[in-house]
Amino acid sequence: MTLTAQQETHSLFLLLKERFGEVHEDDLAAMLVESDHPIYSVELYAVWAALTLWSDLLRDTYTVVYVDNTAAQAALVKGSSGVDTGDQIIQGVGEFEASLVCRPWFSWVPTHSNPADPPSRGATEALRSTGASGSTFRKRMLQ
Q1: How far apart are CA 104 and CA 94, in angstroms?
Q2: Which of 22, 85, 105, 110 would you label with 74, given CA atoms 20 to 30 Å apart?
Q3: What CA–CA distance (Å, rounded) separates 6 from 138?
Q4: CB 61 within 8 A of CB 102
Q5: 141 three-state secondary structure
Q6: Cα diameter, the chain
Q7: Please, what are the averages of pLDDT over each run of 10 residues along the chain (143 residues)?
Q8: HSE of 136 in the Cβ direction (CA atoms, 13 Å)?
């Protein structure tokens, strides 16, 4: 089945509204070793998780990835991080870019415009009311 660009855009948006999730508990534990407040690594992790979950949709595409953390956005553009967990995640993102021939553009979005922000703070009611379901990410990223 071949989709038009508009259909592909709408399909991805709907897919994003259908799912939200949590960081694998072992990965979160690794992030907490480096920082008591690992939001930077969690923001990077979300990009890696999206590429993992939607790899079939993202294959051979030009993709815009919105991140509301400027440090995470800068690290994704640069291709490296100042912390070990960040470097591991960015390496994983780079491997997906290469294997999927996915050409992402990493852009910043204000937190108040980011639909992923409320669930990241535990506010999932609005998403659940649309039929979205949550889950814990089962694939481990960090070693």
Answers
A1: 10
A2: 22
A3: 31
A4: yes
A5: coil
A6: 47
A7: 42 44 80 87 88 88 91 96 94 95 93 77 76 68 74
A8: 7
DSSP per residue, 10-54: HHHHHHHHHEEEE--HHHHHHHHHH-SS-HHHHHHHHHHHHHHHT
Which amino acid belongs to residue 109? Answer: V
Residue 66: what residue type? Answer: Y
The Cα 52–Cα 72 span in angstroms is 18
What are 129's two structure tokens?
Answer: 């009311």
Cβ contacts of 90 within 8 Å, gap of 6 or more? 44, 75, 76, 79, 80, 81
Selection from 101, 109, 96, 9 nearest residue 45 by Cα = 96
Query: And the tokens for 122?
Result: 């535990």
Q: Is the separation of the CB atoms in 44 and 81 below 8 Å?
A: yes
Q: Which residue is associated with the tokens 């509204």?
A: 17
- CA distances, 3 to each of 11, 52, 100, 103, 108 (Å): 9, 21, 18, 19, 28
Token pair 């979300």 in the structure block, residue: 46
